[in-house]
Write a structure and sequence with these properties.
Length: about 270
């Protein structure tokens, strides 16, 4: 049943810290806009002291089950270090999480909290879903040995792109706070070395159905492409080449910036 086939009633409220706590920011004037594919939550974040920012948490409850941000397809103004001001925005692509649609009353709460209370996705993956050293969340995967957080979807742009376009897209991710973060970047050569190392050590990287991309799919990533991914590491100062990571065999080599390769954003989870 689709979302719009039946009226959906949303109970939405802000949860505020009690007077006397050190955290004084408040979530005010919550409002929502719902379509068949997404819900936009707008709010104002106000302070009563000298604070200039606050962490913001989101909790959705549907039929008695509670969903934290790392269990949903969210982007926008939640997580750590949200600047105070009006018209803060959270976008929930609910059709990704509930393709069958939402046809019942559900509650959405937005809460101002201290930064140190934001969920650590490396320690608390969505639904406790963990494969070896990989903590799997709705939109991210944390490699717990390196504490690198990768976009779970390894082909967000859908098609290969030139390096300047990859840089612009990462800027967009940060501006829109993809998965609640604004410090995404193009991986370095060293980032990819660490991601690919354990697959190569286990014997992946040769033969049909045994590529490094196939290994990464077993770790919880989705849409890993068998091909070349950009790194941000220059080959040398005198050329226009960057190191590029190959997910067939795990080889990292310098190639021209003018070529078209895949983008896979990463950030530090620490």
């Amino acid at each position: 049943m689709s979302l719009l086939s039946r009226p959906v009633r949303i109970l939405i409220a802000s949860l505020l810290f009690l007077p006397g706590t050190l955290h004084a920011a408040e979530v005010l004037n919550l409002r929502t806009h719902v379509s068949s594919t997404r819900m936009i939550i707008e709010y104002d974040l106000a302070g009563t002291g000298r604070e200039k920012e606050s962490a913001v948490d989101v909790l959705v409850e549907i039929k008695g089950r509670k969903y934290s941000p790392n269990m949903l397809s969210l982007s926008g103004d939640f997580g750590r270090s949200i600047a105070l001001g009006s018209h803060r925005k959270i976008i929930w692509n609910h059709s990704h999480d509930f393709p069958e649609g939402l046809d019942s009353v559900f509650t959405c709460r937005v809460n101002s909290i201290p930064d140190n209370m934001v969920t650590d996705e490396g320690q608390t993956p969505a639904d406790g879903f963990r494969l070896g050293y990989f903590a799997i969340n709705r939109q991210t995967v944390v490699e717990t040995r390196t504490q690198l957080m990768w976009a779970r979807h390894a082909n967000i742009p859908v098609k290969p792109m030139r390096y300047p376009d990859a840089q612009k897209l990462v800027d967009t991710f940060n501006r829109e706070r993809y998965a609640g973060y604004n410090d995404w970047r193009i991986p370095t050569r060293e980032d990819f070395d660490e991601l690919l190392f354990f697959g190569k050590k286990a014997g992946w990287g040769s033969g049909l159905g045994h590529f490094i991309a196939d290994y990464l799919a077993t770790c919880g990533f989705v849409n890993v492409q068998s091909g070349n991914y950009w790194t941000s590491t220059p080959a040398d100062a005198a050329t226009n080449r960057l190191f590029v990571a190959n997910t067939w065999n795990g080889v990292i080599r310098p190639l021209e910036q003018s070529n078209y390769y895949h983008l896979w954003p990463v950030r530090s989870a620490q």
